[in-house]
Amino acid sequence: MEERKVRWGILATGGIAAAFAADLVDLPDAEIAAVASRRRESAQAFAERFGAARAYGDWESLAADPDIDVVYVATPHSAHRAAAGLCLEAGRNVLCEKPFTLNLRETEELVALAREHDRFLMEAMWMFCNPLVRRLKALVDDGAIGDVRTVQADFGLAGPFPPAHRLRDPALGGGALLDLGVYPVSFAQLLLGEPDAVAGSALLSPEGVDLQTGAVLSWESGAMAALHCSIVGGTGGTASVTGSRGRIDVPSGFFHPERFVLHRDGSEPEEFAAGPADGPRTTLRHEAAEVMRALRAGEKESPLVPLEGSLAVMRTLDAVRERIGVRYPGDAVAVTV
Question: pTM score > 0.90 for this model?
Fold first, then answer.
């Protein structure tokens, strides 16, 4: 693999799969080898669009393809456990879209499968691979603002989404929390680790999914995070990290920022902006590059998106759902592939 392109399989053909494939095409050391969909026609059209050599009308054929180095699972998150599990059991390495699964149990099962089959597994939390987010974390870790006291982050879409939309469907893991709230939660835990206490409140839909949710996470250190997500109100996607000696503000799109501002006590504000080498703020190529780096290094997980971190985020999401009273059909049944 060190002397050739990394061969990718793409499982599913929706919008996020197309965005990822478009970025892969621009990476000189990546090749889209195959694509799979439940519908052969969709897979064939996707393959023709992005230059994939093979198109499959079922997931099993992609998972069994020996000429694939890693599979990108881009299904709705209600199918992540089944799709990623199928690939891991077939001996494929996997990059699985966020949120990793519907619940902690399913994530634990995927991690166990990866370790049983000695395969690479990573959640596609592209925020963690973003160069500017990595710079922000490095500043916080280096004490640029002192001890972290509070984290604030929001992500909301205006909607409205009709009852038939996937974001309103409990069977598809609908609601704001898993689809959008995973970003504020992950951002807070990137900086502070897993919280010691979780509180939450939500507005629920008639179907029983959360239309908007507020969560407060707290740590024994005294740090707190105030987080919000919504599918009934468009928010600025802002974030702020306040410490004992300063503050960092991300004015918009905190999970793929163009810039952020560091305020050190007693000093003029410092602006950090994405550079030309970072590419467009919406690019997914950084996570793809991290997967390929890890595979070439023989690593089974990424230090940027470690499996224990993904497990910790799922524990928090489960805890918030428990507080707000949201349950999915998959919470109570075993998953079969």
Answer: yes
